[in-house]
């Protein structure tokens, strides 16, 4: 039946579109969708409501959310509640930035171009890399693009990833890789330390491997202290080293560029972006200036130049957009359709406000709070940390109760966390990951420990 607000629902228009596509029915258009996920009935949509009724309904549903700051949050693993300086919101809400759509054209405003250039420069300084693009969607899609980029550069099809990396990000990598004919293989991690198993890695390295991906700190919260040795082995077989980072740790930890990373990915969300119920986020992507890598990097690059007639006047311009499908069509490097320019600005403001000293202090907060929590957990009889490796901000805790139940029961105490490892690792069903940072006081941590003791008694 045709709908007045949906022109394409008119039978004649639908038939014309199907004819142009060489299809006989709309169902044939979706023939690659598994039948068990197709809804073979009309949508159960209720009758329309008045504006007042709709407002009440939405308010009631939103009231069921359990969110910060009403609830203490110790959730981590890829999306965090962090402190956002008020100046970030103040500048971000200016109309020049807030209302402009993702910039595509080289001739966009100088202000927007400058903000993107500053973001790129700061990411390079933070990660120790030589060139960064002007943002991706999030950490997972940045990893997916990095895997495909490694495939294009090396002409190899195997990607190795540590089993101690985020399973959700690995899933995204597989989604990107499988259509390109690539294989993603998971390497074991040491169940005692939580670090990558170097023997497992060495047994998999050969001349078919395009890249190896590690996270530092990894998904288990553990620092990969031998990351440099791992990367040397990776380079020894001609593969690329991709390193994933939480950038808020880089005020203390060595930047990936200093120990040989070819590509760095991550998420800028902890640098001035609210968790937003899980997104949108902002993906970080940086690499070396090797032309083979640079020309294959997805996204856009903003450059700085001077006027020919007056060199004292500088200008910003989009100098490279190798991925754009609106330019290269099916030959595009990537099919990413936008970026997170507004959040890139937020990250840039955050880093400018913090500076090197502020980033160091931020890292110190994460370390001191997580170590205070570890001492308190241990005093109450919890196995913490569960892994013996060095941890940074995120702490593994083993309880007598399974981790999913622990997370649900903590919500009754108005506490969010920890992240249940049982969702991803059957052997770690009683282990949770708790994240600690500058937003937590010692009283907050004491409250968590008290509640944890109550729900696991």
Structure in words:
The chain has 457 residues and is of the alpha/beta class. The longest helix is centred in the C-terminal third of the chain and has 39 residues, at 341-379. 37% of the residues lie in helices and 14% in strands. Helix 6 (110-127) runs parallel beside helix 13 (341-379) and helix 7 (139-154) packs across helix 8 (167-177). A seven-stranded mixed β-sheet has the order 2-8-7-6-5-3-4, sandwiched between helices. A three-stranded antiparallel β-sheet has the order 11-14-13, covered by helices on one side. Strands 1-12 form a two-stranded parallel sheet. It has three domains: 1-33, no CATH class; 72-84 and 356-455, Aspartate Aminotransferase, domain 1 (Alpha-Beta Complex), CATH 3.90.1150; 86-350, Aspartate Aminotransferase, domain 2, CATH 3.40.640. The chain contains 15 helices and 14 strands.
Largest sheet: 7 strands, mixed
| Proportion of helical residues | 25-40%
Spans of at least 5 consecutive residues whose pLDDT stays below 50 are none
Structural class: alpha/beta
Output the strand order for the largest sheet: 2-8-7-6-5-3-4
The whole-number mean of residue pLDDT values reads 92
Termini separation (Å)?
59 Å
Note the total helix count.
15
Number of domains: 3
Give the total of beta strands: 14
Q: Under the CATH scheme, which class of the largest domain?
A: Alpha Beta
Radius of gyration of CA atoms, rounded to a whole number: 24 Å
Order of helices and strands: HHHEHHHEHEHEHEHEEEHEEHHEHEEEH
CATH topology of the largest domain: Aspartate Aminotransferase, domain 2
Shape: globular
CATH superfamily of the largest domain: Type I PLP-dependent aspartate aminotransferase-like (Major domain)
CATH architecture label name of the largest domain? 3-Layer(aba) Sandwich
Strand proportion: 5-15%
